[in-house]
Design brief:
Radius of gyration: 18 Å
Strand content: under 5%
Distance between the termini: 36 Å
Order of helices and strands: HHHHHHHHHH
Mean pLDDT: 88
Number of strands: 0
Number of helices: 10
Length: 171
Amino acid sequence: MKQSLFDAFKCYNHSGFQKSPLACVKLGLCYERGYGVGQDYREAALWYQRGAQVREKTCLAALGRFHEEGLGMRRNVEEAAKYYLQAAEQGEPFAQLSLGTLYRKGQGVRQDNVSAYVWLSLAARQGLGAQVRELLAQGMTPEQIAAAEKRLAELPPSLTAPPSVTSTRSP
């Protein structure tokens, strides 16, 4: 198993130098988790940053988490919110959940239950954070929920539609 992880790392490393967004995701994950190479949060952050430069949503969400948790860098929740927003706007569910949570708590952003509800609702449509959204809704006024629902209805379909599932079976 260790040899196959190392071989995968070598393969990703080669394509990473060619600025492949997928290689940036994979190499960031290899360094973050220590797959095929020693764990190194700073190196992982560098690979995620390379992917973020081409707006790769998984890299953007990972950088948000690294900034929020202070992994391989100084903790900076305001910076985390910026990365989460970029990824969330592309439909990345972890970023939507994380951004909604930041809005709910007022960490790195101004506390805003309506924005929190919107982002948590988008994440919930993809299977993340439904319970968090329901807890939030219990403390919101009907007017706040209506405002959030209105904002959700005004979002582009590409952001509000749950991801389609493609069948791998032959017809």
